[in-house]
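FW: tagging you since you asked about this chain on Friday. Here's the raw sequence from the shared folder, copied in full. Didn't touch anything.
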Amino acid sequence: MHRLRNYALSSLTCGALLISLNVFGQELHKTAPDPPKNWHQMDLKTDGFYGVSLNQAYLFLKGKKSKTVVVTTIDSGIDTLQKDLVSVLWVNPNKKDGYAGDVHGWDFLGGKDGKVDYTETTEEVRQYYKLKDKYTGITTAPQGKEKEYALWQNVKAVYDTTISKALAEVSNLKMEVNVLSITNHYIKEALKLQSDQTFVKADLDRITTSNDTVNQSKTVWESVFSQIGGNTNNAKVIKDLTEYYAKQNNTINPDLDARTRIIGDDPDVNDGKPFGNNILKTPDASHGTGVAGLIGAVRNNGYGIDGIADNVRIMAVKAVPNGDEYDKDIANAIHFAVDHGAEVINMSFGKKISPHKDWVDEAFKYAAAHDVLLVQASGNESQDIDAKPEFPNSNYLDSSKTDNVISVGASGPKPDTTLAAAFTNYGKNSVDIFAPGVKVTSIDMDAETNTEDGTSFSAPIVSGIAALCLEYYPKLSARQVKQAILESATPLNGTMVNKPGAKGVKVDFATLSKTGGIVNAYKALEIASKMKGERK
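HL: got it, structure written out here
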């Protein structure tokens, strides 16, 4: 055991961490100091950080009355005992709706025996194994199978890229999980922490020793925290890395029977029959908890963070595993949310293949028909999604249009070349607006807070602003709320930024989205206040 530890430790010293790459599916920042944990709410002119001017928004709302707005998070679940969320969780008033035991939402990844399918592989892997025996070696589409053959060609191309990346990463990831676990042990010993206690970047300054192993461990964690951000803790780092390792390993060695074994349904048959359970807090619920916190964590309670909106109820729908979501689950989740009174639905997820896009398209249109706003994260692949689309999206297969979807890219805290997050997807036609998504702090499971990068955090900031508009201007339609949000963004013409995914290339920020700007809560409310509501 000691040899293993010493070997692993020496292999990591000198910064051989792959964490400096896209280990968590997002670019990590090495040099910029951590901004204030609430920078995403700040005002550029007043505070020097390119947040959403939330203080100014609440000054504008002072003295006005609000109504409660239901916001659904379709995500990885939620910590229903999180102190900052308990009082704002939606409670299902309908006890006869077919969702037995439903209280705060529903889990479409749940089974009858209380188990949950929360570890999945990617859609391209699932489809590759489904189609490979039929089409491997086939060079032209069989008659009557043209559509499926076209899907196979797309699946095969994406699968090859995905599997190549996974194979390149997984052995190093295994080493890094081991090394961080080992160094974590030495740091906790040096700090005299109990097994269930955590440490953060500032705690490392308390370690003064001549022990080489402890000092090497300290160097490792100083590097990790400087790359990820000092507002996270050791347990979260190890948990995220372990989950990412499991995800990549499941790409190479997929468990293709988990869905049927645990849930018992066929994801390729959308027959309308209810399935799932009401278990919302699962080991992977950290992501959904953080998303919910940004939208509506209790404000001014001296705990956790302050959410964007001050009078919401969060309906949690679990449909996103550690891996790619199923189209069937997303379609059913949207229907569930709409049927149970949601006015805004946040969707911080996405994938590269959508075999049943028609089902999701129908659900998007169902939401539009019921005047429900959908807010979608654009994704974290540093790519132009005009050219390489992510799913779901509102480019419907039948070419029809709705005006109830907002796609959100991620911006940074300063109006300089890093204003567009290095990881964000972009697109002049496919991304509507940008919102803070770099080193954003929200609540986490089990009374923790966590700082993350990702469009997953940009989207709920916009969802919170949408909810705020509907709280104080309840006659506005989803279309009008979208209009107010998009018009709140001042086009940043001439602001040159690093182009996501293109090292050394500069681009005008205004070319990265439809609006060319960043959402502003104060301006959105000001615009909303002048609109004549379309709702009866």
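FW: The CA atoms of residues 210 and 217 lie 12 Å apart.
HL: agreed, and The domain at 39-121+266-529 is CATH 3.40.50.200 (Rossmann fold).
FW: great, closing this out.
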